[in-house]
Amino acid sequence: MKETSFAIEFQPFGIRLICTEATTVLDAARQAGIPMVNVCGGKGTCGKCIIQILEGEASPLTHNEQVFHKGNLLAQNERLACETILTADAKILIPQKSLQTTQILQTESATQKEQVDALIHNVNIQLQKPSLESPISDLENVLSSYPNLQFESDSRLLDIFKLTPTWMRETDWQINAICENDLILGITKEPPERLLGLAVDIGSTKIALYLLDLENGDVVAVKGIPNPQIGYGEDIMARLGFAMQDNNNENKLHTVTIDAIHQAVQEICENTTIDPNQIVNQCYVGNTAMHHIFLGVPSRHLASSPFTPVLTKALNIPVEKLGLQGMPGSRVYIPGPIAGFVGSDHLAFLLSAGFAESDQVLLGIDIGTNTEIALQKGEHIVSCSTASGPAFEGAHIRFGMRAAPGAIEHAHIDRNGLMHCDVIGEGEAVGICGSGILDIISELKNAGILNYRGRLDIDHPLVQVGEDKVRSYTILSAADGQREISLSQKDIDQILLAKGAIRSGIAILMDYLAVSPDEIDEIIIAGAFGSFLNPYHAIQIGMLPEVDLSRIKAVGNAAGAGARMMLLSKEKRQKAEGLAKRIEHLELNTYPDFELFFANGIRFTPD
Amino acid sequence: MKETSFAIEFQPFGIRLICTEATTVLDAARQAGIPMVNVCGGKGTCGKCIIQILEGEASPLTHNEQVFHKGNLLAQNERLACETILTADAKILIPQKSLQTTQILQTESATQKEQVDALIHNVNIQLQKPSLESPISDLENVLSSYPNLQFESDSRLLDIFKLTPTWMRETDWQINAICENDLILGITKEPPERLLGLAVDIGSTKIALYLLDLENGDVVAVKGIPNPQIGYGEDIMARLGFAMQDNNNENKLHTVTIDAIHQAVQEICENTTIDPNQIVNQCYVGNTAMHHIFLGVPSRHLASSPFTPVLTKALNIPVEKLGLQGMPGSRVYIPGPIAGFVGSDHLAFLLSAGFAESDQVLLGIDIGTNTEIALQKGEHIVSCSTASGPAFEGAHIRFGMRAAPGAIEHAHIDRNGLMHCDVIGEGEAVGICGSGILDIISELKNAGILNYRGRLDIDHPLVQVGEDKVRSYTILSAADGQREISLSQKDIDQILLAKGAIRSGIAILMDYLAVSPDEIDEIIIAGAFGSFLNPYHAIQIGMLPEVDLSRIKAVGNAAGAGARMMLLSKEKRQKAEGLAKRIEHLELNTYPDFELFFANGIRFTPD
User: Fold this and answer.
1) Which of A526-530, B272-276, B565-569 shows the lowest per-residue confidence on average (mean pLDDT)?
2) Cα(A18)–Cα(A11) distance, integer angstroms
3) A218 touches chain B (CB under 8 A)
4) ipTM above 0.85, yes or no
5) Is B137 in contact with A308 (Cβ distance < 8 A)?
6) SS (H, E, C) B321-361
């Protein structure tokens, strides 16, 4: 049974997204990495997520939209992204006013065109017509006009010269070489219609694929798929545990990953009627475990001390070798990880965030189950990894959940002491996601309901003590006819541990390079959680050092952006490899007074 | 159904031959390339092919052998190689006295040990034990003690690091690398028992395989198999014609060749209980068509003017790529051909014959359907190919046949005008092979039965005129109660055309480099026919220039010898590649006055 799918094209970005089920324009824009304004949480009440439908059919006007039209708050050709549902091909215009212009920018996501240089290019080769006097071999004939051109290996040469000799004679001695720098990847009779490339960020939960035009950097299609390894373990440590159980398990993880990517590329190509052979270059980033699993080298040694990676070198591997789609003989560029728990996604993030490009003091943070942190000062770039755990993703929190419909994503306490919640989607709240928990804890602290040691005030009317003697704060009450949602002392402790892990990592790097908070020119936060995070609250609870809010920037899927940069530009690859060499990895557990840094980090206001 | 097979080991050479059917020791020695004395043609009457059976059972003493024993011409532990039949494993001693010491030497065959240098070698790698303070990656760990070591490609590195990380930990941080120069081909926990190599000469009719010990150059086993391409055409032009008929035909030729070699190696390994993974290097030579078919690149363009080869570069291809047996990741070295009709077998011949090693004037001739000729003088080495046709292999000759049992291989006319014939094997004569025809023509000329223009004397009693008006000379008469065998004027014309093609090639090369016959220090003749050829008669009929007979040397399968040299020695490979660059290929058809050279060449005594 073939799934029906359709493509949504976003202008002025030229981004295409392939969908397999009905979606609101807002959700589709999010998936494509376009940072739309989203004040009411997609309830159709704020009227900010304005779009125009340039081509295609959409769901009829909703009541909310009719109200905005009547009030002239929406022009006749405008609709609200959160209210408009698409089920077929469409072209959507997102005006500038609908883009996030607050301090939380997601600019480095899919909206910026990357630098393009001629990494992959066609070379038209005019051949000699051989004669009895000059019976030049076919290989020498190809190389005679371009003596610098070469082949990656004799194997590749052999593959290419299975078909080329006949083509040379059929085209009247003129052929096209597809080259990566001076390397002949393949020979064709005619230059291909387009040279396409694929950049992929293999996240632990989601794999993001970007199909790009290598000649102008245009994004041709974007697709996100769940990481199929989830079937073998929710997080990386669980999957590495699975890998350690049986020698064949690593291979299972590798195979499901490759198969899922293969299938996703197949779907992208079918929906865009692109021949997979037009994909002539690829770049994959991910954390070290994803990197090892993708390559099919042992990942299980990453799980035990001293957490040594198998390899950290950037590799170029032919597509066939990895079982991926693409022009036979074309290569997959796989930047190397930095260390056992600092992957190539971190490298890609730092590349896209401009590390090693200026002499600014930069602090880069990619928050996840493992949080990678990097600090640049002068010639030094030092990075570390800290096990912040899955609390910010809602795990181990009673009412915790991922940032999905029904999640409280933001909250504040008004001057009357009432908690107001923004919920993702149109339904009622069913849980709290990371950014919501952060807001709530910060507001509870500001309101004095949490004391400086992070304990709930037992005397507050909304703080109850459960049967298990654990205090909890009621966020939404069943008395109001909805699901009761509360935050317990245990939940708060989890979050403080998580933020403590991050803050102690930051503090150790700052200590190592002797950086004070006021020296920091920019804090760059990557990852989905970083985009939802309210930086004011992050500082309030002591997760981030106290800097001016204008110096905090969220960059969304920065690893994907870095992968796209490395896909498109030889210079960026060289920069990334230089950056990788320059990054000094710091093992936190062996840093002097590590325990003191950690104890300090979990406090609301660390020293 | 599994064929039973057995192994014959020849001492003092250490050569092993795998046989699948009963064989005389003489035939087996011939197959193994050992030049035994063979005066009576294997009839058991000359008593020269003396051997000793060191181990194993053989057929009982024959009447001939009993006669020699009685006359004390054979010691009690001695037997005659031509009379002794083996059907099971045996070890045979061939004493020095039984080896050819006449001017026709086959020394360059399998009897000489080649130069061995450490092309393939084991490297013991002592690794660091990584720690949290120094969590070195597994790859860096391997390379840290030997920074010059590298991998052929990132693909190979990836393959090797699928198993190596676990081995590193299992062996307490010590592993073995199998290297080709500075290239890591593979990594093992322990050094393998032996490092073996395979040298293969892909002839148009026979494929010769030599399994060698790479550390000391010992020949471990020898096997000859028929070239399965014969099913698609008797000679190269017929096979190229087949290749041109359909695009898939080239692939058929390639596949049967690879399969046959695969199967032959399988059999060698089964019979010697050797693990094919111990084969860590291979070298293949052949004429240009065999080279192209073996590699699977188009061969059909070799059949039409200007006969350009696809490639002439020496290649190193991993075994898996070619579908051959051997250690995964180990490489097959394939020297490049010189031109469309001058293959890498010619290069191997010149290497083994010492071309480019001295400043002697050398003439090298490899006689076959195509005869390749090379002439060295000073800095110059020039080679050509000439279509001498299959007459010397008995084709297009009424009673012609290959050098097989029943063939007249030598003949002379005694002072009474009677023709005496030596027949291969024990039966009566059924035909004439190339060397026999050559002798007969030479003797007929010396006896005046052929005139200077090569016409049979119609007045001679043994010359008859057939119904087709064609004269023929009766060699063996039905009147003597045997098969009548004769040589017709047409047969003689064919032979004169063939020898004319060879002589005109020689003459053009000598003209080009201004060499006179007395300047030639050595004429080296390769190939099976060359070993049977009587050089006196070859000069008599004008096939070879008039030089002192002591300067003519036959070297047997010199291409196989060259392949073995290139298998064993890095220096020989470099020499071969230098030689290939130095060889100037001369296209005979475009040489000035080519027709005059040819017309002159077919005469009995060319100018």
Assistant:
1) A526-530
2) 15
3) no
4) no
5) yes
6) HHCCCCCCCCEEEECCCCECCECHHHHHHHHHCCCCCCCCC
